[in-house]
Amino acid sequence: MQRKNNLLRTATYKKQAGFRSGMAMIMAIAIIVIIGTIMALSLALTTQTTKRTTDLYLYEQSVLYSKSAAELALLDIAQANPCTVPTANYSFPSGCVGAACLYDANVTIRYVYRGLACGDINGDGINDDYFTTLTTDEQNGSVLMDITVSTNAGTEPIRYFRRTIQKL
Question: Which residues contact 104 (CB under 8 A, 6 or more apart)?
């Protein structure tokens, strides 16, 4: 009889052991799901942070290139005849061609003079549309620049606009 009792105990012990190993499997799966979720969230956060950092860098570069484009336009205006430079286009880095250019800067220029200092550049009898007449001496000899810097280097196209008035 002891043998039967011993066999019964072994069978009961085996059933309890099977229950314990089944519970361990469920807990292991739950832990793997929790760790997988945390890893997916951290990967998404890292990707988003990298995108923001890249876009912020490209935006800050666009701001700096707009200032450089204004200076280059003033240099072109100083080297040319008065009121003959209505637009200027620059690519950065300088000397690049086509797709190698990261930044494109377009400058639209309006001259501000008193009287008819620039007036009719084309010889058609009409003041050109990039010329503005003033009646005060304080603004005489200025230029109004609209600068657009654009790039497609990042995840989204970035375009920066700047308007500035410079004395000639």
Answer: 89, 90, 91, 92, 149, 150, 151
